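Email to the structure team, subject: Crp/Fnr family transcriptional regulator model.

Hi all, the expression group asked for a predicted structure before they design truncation constructs. Nothing fancy, just the tokens so they can compare against earlier work. One-line instruction: predict Crp/Fnr family transcriptional regulator, return tokens.
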Amino acid sequence: MTDSRDAKKNHLLAALPDAEWQRWLPQLEWVEMPLGEVLYEAGKTLEHVYFPTTSIVSLLYVMEDGASAEIAVVGNEGLVGISLFMGGESTPSRAVVQSAGQGFRLKAQTMKDEFNRAGPVMHLLLRYTQALITQMAQTAVCNRHHSLDQQLCRWLLLSLDRLQGSELVMTQELIANMLGVRREGVTEGALKLQEAGLIRYARGRISVLDRPGLERRTCECYAVVKKEYDRLLPVKLAT
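Reply from the structure team: attached below.
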């Protein structure tokens, strides 16, 4: 049986009205989400939507030559698989677990049925979708106009917002794939942040030592995204 306390670590699930929550609870399936697991590939039919609780999922656009760039991150604030209720059965992006943890999933047909009830669930999911679109748009702007150093700070802060602690388990190669840059660029950027006393990076583990310092160093893009999420999706604590 699903543990309701664990499921409500996901803010969208925690925000469900009681009637919808009671209807969803028996259908939520707890899942492990190991680092690097692909939840869905571009163009494939989605069979589930995922609600991360202690994991983070990266949405990546993959080019024909294999190069990739991250377009958004999803953690305990949201869900993976919005195309199911936005009128499509698939998406052009790939969803990959960027920080290992757990989550819950719901069958695709169940999600579509819930959305089509046109009640509070639909409005909640549409507000989340608007916030996610803001993140995607701001990521595109950031990648075009801001330095790798600023992008790395933005990425770290967005990831931290979706975790309970201050440490990420992440290889330089995976960060490079997400930011769409060379691995050497990530190494140089991480060393700069470490020398400034903002992070400690060793053996694939990034510990954030000075979050206010990261916020001062990043560009405006992080604040724009955070403000929109806070406006559209006020956090409801798990009960």
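The chain has two domains: 4-141, 146-227. The radius of gyration is 17 Å. Ping us if the truncation boundaries need rechecking.
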